[in-house]
Amino acid sequence: MISPNVPIRKIFFPASRLMLLIFRLFCSGLLFAGISAGAQDLGEMQRQFLRGNYTEVIRTAQKEIDDNPYRSDWRRLLVKSLLTVGRYGEAYTNAAAGLNDYSSNIGLLLLARETALFQNDQGGANRRLAEISALLESRPPPQDGEELAALGQALLLLGVEPKLVLENCFQQAEKLDPPPREAFLAAGQLALDKHDFALAADAFRAGLKIFPDDPDMECGLARAFESGNREQMLQALDAALAINPRHIPSLLLLVDHLIDGEQYGEAERQLAIVLQVNPHQPEALAYRAVLANLRNDPAQEKQFRNEALKFWKMNPQVDYLIGYKLSQKYRFAEGAAAQERALAFEPDYLPAREQLAEDWLRLGQSEEGWKIIEDVHKQDGYDVTAFNLVTLHDQMAKFQTLTNENFIVHMTPLEAGLYGDLVLDMLSRERELMMRKYGVKLTKPTVVDIFPEQKDFGVRTFGMPDNPGYLGVCFGSVITANSPASQAENPANWEDVLWHEFTHVITLTASKNKMPRWFSEGISVYEERQQNPAWGERMNLAYRDMILNGELTPLGELSGAFLAPEDSQHLLFAYYESSLVIEFIVHRFGLESLKEMLTDLGDGKNINIAIPAHTIPLPEMEKQFIAYVTDLAKNLAPGVNLDKPPDSTSNTDVNIWETAHPDNYYLRMRTAGKLMEAKNWTEAEPLLQSIAEAYHGEKGAENPLWLLAVTERNLKETNAELATLQKFAMQESDFVDLHARLIELSEAQQDWPAVTKYANRLLAINPLISLPHRALAEAGVASGNNEQAITAYRKLLLLDPPDPSDVHYQLARLLHARGDSEAEAERQVLQALEDAPRFRDAQRLLLEIKDKTPELNAIPATSNPQLNP
Known about the structure:
Helices cover 66% and strands 3% of the residues. It has 43 helices and five strands.
């Protein structure tokens, strides 16, 4: 959320005056006991304010002021309460009245500035800020912690360096005895504003240790977790709302989360609670404008925006919030337009400038986006997102750009040389296929940024480096992806990842970026499987159990399943279930119905209207889908006992269960594992053969086909092992060891087409290792496909092979034999001789290239220069 204390005009505070003020603060020792905030009834009313009893607080505070108008503490509480409930005129009057008696109270001046903003009195707001600036030259140091925190907030508005304010105001106030809650809140808010979420969490945690029943602290902690851990965010929100069910910042953050999960009805219900407290709350009305946009109601969207701006007509946060949420819904053009409206109100409003830059980067308007980010960083060197993006831009300046008429691909030079051509070729083929299939015409090139470091992918995609778990993201005409270099020993198949992401380009274009997340992800995973049965999520034991245990998410809540999943398995299950919905629609009603739904979404229709319009009513749809998926789960392995063994700690119970289930899949796999550990290959083989015949649908090294192949290898049954691995490869697309072994076995049999096939599959997993390139080169030479060999040898050289002289020599031979690359052939053979000067075959090849040895064709190839002493 955005702090309502948005500067209309910064009055920059000279550094010399700041240092003088800090000196005076330290001279005073900051060891003041502070002026008492008042009697016990004031403390109780402050607690009532935190609990949401605003009407009672206003009534009591007004009575106290009527009885004794010279009470700045009661006046501040009254103004805060009136602002909270939207009685802006009364807040303005009371703030002004309070300043008649306490003109040097910084906290009251800040409140007066805020009330002026909500009275469309920009001049008054600026005058209050100027008064604070003048006051800081003449007044003595603050005499309590709350005023010291207010001083820090004022200095930030005056343009003082945030780090100095944090250290000399907020953190100093935190050291007082007792410390004011406002210091922790201000420090946390400052960190949130700069996108330093770890620092923000630390500030709010520290505050909660002293103020454990403070909804503002809990809400601040929730906001610190918003972009990282949604589960922890919701826990903190629950704590805040348990203290104060009418706590507006917490309710608004909950609304934000609900909109992300496409639970629009519940979001409206929570907004109704906010508007009961404050009928004019600008953020609540901005959210209503967002919801109106999402249901394609421009008239209401305009109405709610106008209501949000009623009391502060030039409030930039209204349009910023509208644009920010629309951009989160992939409506970047609309989001960018909203940011431009916000900047028309306040040209230096940094949140809008930064978001506009990110919108443009996601729209492919990179030059404009990077320029704004650079400007934002110069203006605010403490903003973490801007710093991250500027640093990334410097890194990306070293990238290589690969282009054709339809794609602009940015990769590191090494990766561009190793598989950039394959990326362009695959994406071009998919583009033609998917445009025909979905009847979509793309009118501009797609930008694809591929990052070798996960943190750089995170910054380009989310503005922050810490977003693990994503392989790629599509924004419409821009795709960002992790390269194999950013992943572990078994990276994901990059062809599969890019196929998935480019499918989003097609469907987002078809729907004009107006589609629920689950629908978009479901089509992409479905299309993965359509292109290659080994790609995408498919039914396995874990998914079978989840389906049969009733863990399917209702269709109307599927997008929410992506936000705060219980674990990584539940996140992948959300992708899988979404793809099954698409599979069911296409299977039951045809692809044309799916395409018509995309058209309806593009026309602004809700998904709950678009689906039944081309299928059947949603309740019946849900019923038939559950039956369809349940049938898939039950028929995963017909006749095989797939029940999970009990978790009982009683040996007796376990033994009874195992005796009653001798053919259980898990028990048989456990037995096979024990036989393999004991190297009892002879007994393990028939057991694994039987298991694999019954079920072999798992991925990776736990698949019985892989275990069977390992057993056959140890029994030296090479032909059997090869047949097993070939069967396994039909369903496995990202297992390095599998494809490496298939290359080895195929080479031994001199089955060069098979070597080429499995080397290409390995390249789709990890093109950054030598094995697939060397295998393609050798297969090309052996099968007479010299162009394949030339390409592979060139790429192999990029990986610094252990025998570079031989690779240079082999490449030179092929280029010379081709007859049209003599200059390059000469360069290659000279490089071979540079590494191995006594390499006789290379010497003879050089002479032949120079036309001094005409009988070159009689010279046999030698792959090891050490054989030529």
